[in-house]
Amino acid sequence: MLPGAPQNPDSPLSESAFEGRNLREIAFEREECLKIGRFKAFDYFGDGSFYLLDSPGHAIGHLCGLARTTANPDTFVLLGGDVCHYGGIFRPSKYLPVPESIKPHPCHPHGDATFCPGGAWEELQRSRGRDVNDPLFTPTFGHDIPQIIETIGKLQEADCLDNLFVIIAHDATVRDAVDQFPLSLNRWKEKGWAKDLKWAFLRDAEVYWKSKGVI
Predict the structure, then answer these.
(1) Are residues 102 and 199 in contact, defined by beta-carbon separation less than 8 angstroms?
(2) pTM (whole model) above 0.85
């Protein structure tokens, strides 16, 4: 990336974009950096309110944000950006298996029905050569696929925590279900957003669920 163009003709950045600015590159190996879970982290404001997480793979130097939303008890929103593009790329996992029943129902989120996948989920995964606790899909797009998979493994460890709400940039299930700016996300746990949306991506397999008679 640095130096920018035209000095470095291969850089996607223009030198004029940061001319006259104090450009500071975050080095996650420095003493002031820390570890949150398995992520290398940088305390951006120095007060524990917001961290940058080293999460490369999709792009060189890709970052996630970790924002504290409440204290005592502590809750956080992990702003995943482009760490992956779909909930089914990091869910389920060995840390967070598909539950026996899911409410609200992924295909009927505004009704009273409970979704019970039974053996249909395991059958779907086995038919595709995947383990029952493997995510629905494997990432196929990005700068470095093995690095993406490694980063997703770190994300999966965080995703099973009940005081953490993971939001990735392209997740349409979140887009229409949570308050958006200028409103606040701080009451996400009280409002049950993380619990209600965690398995919402399973709605995309509605045709399969119907073929198996589970909806």
Answers:
(1) yes
(2) yes
